[in-house]
């Protein structure tokens, strides 16, 4: 894998005892070292995926002050950091 491609992780590998550890290692690498990945065979309905994407676009279109109102710093578990 090079720096211009995102890894594609198959969640079905997690259910396979023979492949689970390798999947988790790949997931750890993708999350920690790359920061992004595609997850396939996750079972999330296409309509829900579309709605989440639509709502995220609405959120990121807000001005910075509006986005800061829901920043994690305002959440008690995160404000202690």
Give an overview of the whole structure:
InterPro entries: DIOX_N, IPNS-like_sf. This is 2-Oxobutyrate oxidase, putative. Residues 6-76 form the Non-haem dioxygenase N-terminal domain. With 81 residues, the protein is mainly α. The chain has one domain (8-79). The chain has four helices and two strands, in the order E-H-E-H-H-H. It has helices at residues 20-34, 46-60, 64-68, 76-79, and strands at 8-10, 38-40. The chain has a two-stranded parallel ribbon. Helix 1 (20-34) links the parallel strand 1 (8-10) and strand 2 (38-40). The termini are far apart. The model has no long low-confidence stretch (mean pLDDT 91).
SSE topology sketch:
Elements: E1 8-10, H1 20-34, E2 38-40, H2 46-60, H3 64-68, H4 76-79
Give the beta-strand count. Answer: 2
Shape: extended
Output the strand order for the largest sheet.
1-2
Structural class: mainly alpha
Distinct helical segment count: 4
Order of helices and strands: EHEHHH
Computed over alpha carbons, the radius of gyration is: 17 Å
Q: How far is it from the N-terminal to the C-terminal residue, by CA?
A: 34 Å
Overall pLDDT: 91
Main beta sheet strand tally, sense and closure:
2 strands, parallel
Q: Count up the domains.
A: 1
Residues in β-strands, percent: 5-15%
Poorly predicted parts: none
Portion in helices: 40-55%
